[in-house]
Amino acid sequence: MTRSMTHLQRAESFRISPAMVKALRRLAHGQKGLDEDTYRAHVRAVGCASTLDLTRSQHTALLQRLVALPDSPKGRGNARRA
């Protein structure tokens, strides 16, 4: 066996961090305005049942799906209320 990991071994050893989960949820719920059911549908669409079980490629696919969605009007971040 060689010292370097194969691409498959690196993919299998990927563990999504709590910070990455938080960032995905902030994007989905805050910026994009998705409700929980819609967010879960996007997670399932990339082939996973739970955000915590995402592989690196599933994380990338989910991130691409979420970024492609339009921003929620109320998810503009620092907009001040009158």
Explain what you see.
It is a single chain. With 82 residues, the protein is mainly α. The chain has a domain at 14-69. The protein has 4 helices and no strands. It has helices at 7-13, 18-31, 36-45, 56-68. It is globular and about 40 Å long. Mean pLDDT is 84; it is low at 78-82.
What is the percent of helical residues?
40-55%
Provide the residue-averaged pLDDT: 84
Q: With helices defined by DSSP (H or I, 4 residues minimum), what is the helix count? A: 4
The residue ranges in which pLDDT falls below 50 over 5 or more consecutive positions are: 78-82
> How many β-strands, per DSSP?
0
Helix-strand pattern, N to C?
Answer: HHHH
Q: Categorize the overall geometry.
A: globular
Largest sheet: none
Strand content of the residues, in percent? under 5%
Terminal CA distance: 65 Å
Task: Please give the radius of gyration in angstroms.
Answer: 16 Å
Structural class determined from secondary elements: mainly alpha
